[in-house]
């Protein structure tokens, strides 16, 4: 059974889902009062605690079991995204090189677009080759805020 909680953050309402002991989704909700079912399991409570710590600048890494559904290629890209250090960014081309497929920049972009576990799998740390903010499921304003937040806490 999938369980989901929605709670308020400084960036707006966020939902986190888990199934079979692993986080399967993190998304920005339309309303903190949205009803999605399930219960606030210990894992969801811990995920909420870690996310709020991250947004407060006191947590730079997450320690949660993740189980995103996707193709093998997508999972490889998402794993590479989790290797990008807090406060740093990479281009789509650099991520393609990290996974050993230097000509797969576009495919990396598509995998980023399908990332179901925002923030925990930090697709917001991927920029265009010219350093510009491009694409983010929750909108470029949220992406900009996440990068700004990390930059402001990187040396602490």
From TrEMBL:
Keywords linked to the UniProt accession = Cytoplasm, DNA damage, DNA repair, Methyltransferase, Transferase
Question: Could you name the active-site residues?
Answer: 123 (nucleophile)
Gene3D superfamilies, sorted? Methylated DNA-protein cysteine methyltransferase domain, Winged helix-like DNA-binding domain superfamily/Winged helix DNA-binding domain
Top-level EC class? transferase
The enzyme's E.C. designation: 2.1.1.63
Q: Which InterPro entries match?
A: MethylDNA_cys_MeTrfase_DNA-bd, MethylDNA_cys_MeTrfase_DNAb, MGMT, MGMT_N_sf, WH-like_DNA-bd_sf
Enumerate the subcellular locations listed in this protein's record, separating them with semicolons.
Cytoplasm
Q: Which GO terms describe its molecular function?
A: methylated-DNA-[protein]-cysteine S-methyltransferase activity
Tell me the GO BP annotations in alphabetical order: DNA alkylation repair; methylation
Q: Which Pfam families match?
A: DNA_binding_1
Catalytic activity field: a 6-O-methyl-2'-deoxyguanosine in DNA + L-cysteinyl-[protein] = S-methyl-L-cysteinyl-[protein] + a 2'-deoxyguanosine in DNA; a 4-O-methyl-thymidine in DNA + L-cysteinyl-[protein] = a thymidine in DNA + S-methyl-L-cysteinyl-[protein]
Q: Which GO terms describe its cellular component?
A: cytoplasm
Primary localization class, coarse? cytoplasm
Domain Methylated-DNA-[protein]-cysteine S-methyltransferase DNA binding, residue spans: 72-151
| Lineage: superkingdom | Bacteria
* Coiled-coil region: none
Which family would the database say this protein is a member of? Belongs to the MGMT family.
* Role played: Involved in the cellular defense against the biological effects of O6-methylguanine (O6-MeG) and O4-methylthymine (O4-MeT) in DNA. Repairs the methylated nucleobase in DNA by stoichiometrically transferring the methyl group to a cysteine residue in the enzyme. This is a suicide reaction: the enzyme is irreversibly inactivated.
General remark: This enzyme catalyzes only one turnover and therefore is not strictly catalytic. According to one definition, an enzyme is a biocatalyst that acts repeatedly and over many reaction cycles.
Q: Which PANTHER family would you find in this protein's record?
A: METHYLATED-DNA--PROTEIN-CYSTEINE METHYLTRANSFERASE
Name of the protein: Methylated-DNA--protein-cysteine methyltransferase
Its source organism is: Desulfoscipio gibsoniae DSM 7213
């Amino acid at each position: 059974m999938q369980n989901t909680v929605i709670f308020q953050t400084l960036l707006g309402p966020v939902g986190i889902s888990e199934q079979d002991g692993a986080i399967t989704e993190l998304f920005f909700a339309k309303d903190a009062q949205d009803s999605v079912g399930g219960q606030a399991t210990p894992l969801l409570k811990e995920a909420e605690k870690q996310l709020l710590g991250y947004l407060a600048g006191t947590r730079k890494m997450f320690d949660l079991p993740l189980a995103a559904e996707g193709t093998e290629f997508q999972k490889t890209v998402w794993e590479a995204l989790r290797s990008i250090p807090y406060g740093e960014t990479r281009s789509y081309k650099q991520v393609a090189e990290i996974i050993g497929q230097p000509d797969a920049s576009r495919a990396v972009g598509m995998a980023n677009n399908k990332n179901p576990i925002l923030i925990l799998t930090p697709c917001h740390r991927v920029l265009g080759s010219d350093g510009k903010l491009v694409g983010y499921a929750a909108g470029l304003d949220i992406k900009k805020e996440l990068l700004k937040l990390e930059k402001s806490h990187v040396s602490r």
